[in-house]
Specification:
The structure is a homodimer. Chain A is α+β, with helices and mostly antiparallel strands. Chain A has eleven helices and 22 strands. In chain A, strands 10, 11, 12, 13, 14, 15, 16, 19 and 21 form a nine-stranded antiparallel β-sheet that branches. In chain A, strands 3-2-1-4-5 form a five-stranded parallel β-sheet, sandwiched between helices. A four-stranded antiparallel β-sheet of chain A has the order 6-9-7-8. The radius of gyration of chain A is 21 Å and the shape is globular.
Chain lengths: 384, 384
Amino acid sequence: MERLVTSNLKLGIIAGGQLGKMLIQEASKWDVISYVMDSEKECPAASVASHYINGDRLNYEDVCSFGKMVDVLTYEIESVNTKALKKLKEEGVKVKPDPEVLELIQDKGLQKQFYEQHAIPTSPFTLFQGKEEILRAVSSKSLRFPFVQKIRKGGYDGQGVAIIETEKDLGKLLEGESLVEEKVPIAKEISVIVARNEQGEVRSFPVVEMVFDKQANLVERLTCPANISEEQEERAQSIALKLVNSLEMSGLLAVEFFIDKRGDVIVNEISPRPHNSGHHSFESVITSQFEQHLRGIMNLPLGSTQLKMPAVMINLLGEPGYEGKVKYEGLTESMAIEGVKIHLYGKKITKPFRKMGHVTVLSESLEEAVGKAEKVKNLIKVKA
Amino acid sequence: MERLVTSNLKLGIIAGGQLGKMLIQEASKWDVISYVMDSEKECPAASVASHYINGDRLNYEDVCSFGKMVDVLTYEIESVNTKALKKLKEEGVKVKPDPEVLELIQDKGLQKQFYEQHAIPTSPFTLFQGKEEILRAVSSKSLRFPFVQKIRKGGYDGQGVAIIETEKDLGKLLEGESLVEEKVPIAKEISVIVARNEQGEVRSFPVVEMVFDKQANLVERLTCPANISEEQEERAQSIALKLVNSLEMSGLLAVEFFIDKRGDVIVNEISPRPHNSGHHSFESVITSQFEQHLRGIMNLPLGSTQLKMPAVMINLLGEPGYEGKVKYEGLTESMAIEGVKIHLYGKKITKPFRKMGHVTVLSESLEEAVGKAEKVKNLIKVKA
């Protein structure tokens, strides 16, 4: 039977950011009809979607009525009303990835417990009710410096995380139910995106290496392939595949890892959706992460994840000090550099460190691509 | 100065077929606002365009009022009201490629004369007023078999062409102003797509080889790289570059060539737009033909045309004997083959030999890609 019913299949995407936009760009190649629900009419995905629906992703009624319009429902952000998703699933709407998986991932505490239950390597942790309880644990010396506090629910792009190195940092502690974990002595950060479909077929993308901008706590650059040992690559991919299988999910799972100073590969966190660390795949991998996600959630055979060419990806972030109607500098000059691929998300308003676009640089040599990416980073400025 | 004014630049495309759709898919990556004008609301490009405008591309008023809505105006088909395009150009609208170039290309007679003036190799030809004049030339033996008659204006996808091998074929002669050329003893057909911008920068895509389906007179399969000598490759590319320079155009020029039995490279015909023979570039070349066309018409630096991987492209044509609401067979099975990339244009109605989509197969080995493309051709059926 033909599973891909084209010109008829309605794909619903909750939230209309850049991930939704790129998902629709791929879906349009198969003539899938796309519906996007977002509270902002001018969101990036609305410009390419077949239909835009105004709605609040945290509102039970909005999510329910949106879900009933479509055949397959997905989301491009974790903070969605899962109660509504579960109700829709009960009523027969294909909600992918599964609402139960999303619920687990929304809570960093449950995530950690899941790793523990499935013998997935992760840093030791304790759950706390709030700030006061953490301070008591510090006083009683049951919790030792340095450590990392993460709010269990709602964190995003480095928000909801406090790094506590010494007593002086205790003022940074955040309110709310938290997960506290040992601070890993990080040598490297890497990411592996894996996919699974209902048949249980799985595939892993090549490992990518992430270099962080400390100030913004956002990925500054990622490179594929990663400069790690073959053993580490295999280890990371096998852990990611074990995770996606244990979750029995459909669609993509992005797994972020630390490699510690001893060379051990440790899971940091996971996302059940396309991921910033997979943007390069649009141009550099036979099947992009967005197409693979579609294949996964639509229960189609998964595609080849072979790398076509080495790639470096940089995010285009709003310059600090600028807020308002966006103006780009340096696009034309950057386009003149061989192998530069520019993506602008179409956000009208820039803010400091807001993700406004990204650039992928392709080259036969990864070193050359890194050099070109540096040039582009210096050329393109996102101002107001 | 920043030439790419994003979130503001309005690109108008006359006609909304698959070429317009793919152009918009690329334009959306730069957040270009796309306007498409077509007489059919359900045309392929409308599903991805920012704005759909109903209009007839041959109607002077429709083209004029559409052109005034946008900053850069282009077309994805040759049969457009050029009088309107010229008027718009006069009034300051950026019409790219230039209306004068389009006018030349619309008329296969003028095209041929242009080749002659610029010493571009092409088969010897004569222009005729119509069928009667051709018959008189045959009678008087000033025209000898075999020959090819081409209607000067309006032909498309093999329409408007009569191949006259012997006296028996004379019944096939078409009415209207015609170009008659010697029938080239064809060894191979190849295509070269080149691009140029206002600065005079030029780039050539790798040569592709086309295998024709004799019955439908449509490309059956194309492969890149082409299996030709280095000398022939250089010759074809240098002719194509000479053409785009002589025309002083902005945007893409697709040049179709014959290679005759002696190995000579001869121009067949040209199109000032993205071309079926460049579809593979979406996945296999660093800059796709669609992005390159945008760069050309928007006067941006041209992008790298380096091949990422060998590719084979096949068109998905409506099966003979089926007409009506389209139904696809074999998509899911085809997706399970490594390296298969499916594009469906979203046409609701299929007809015999109508272009409904295409498939690009990527592989390290061209031979393997050809084998996989054969499999896909047997699997996917476009029925009603």
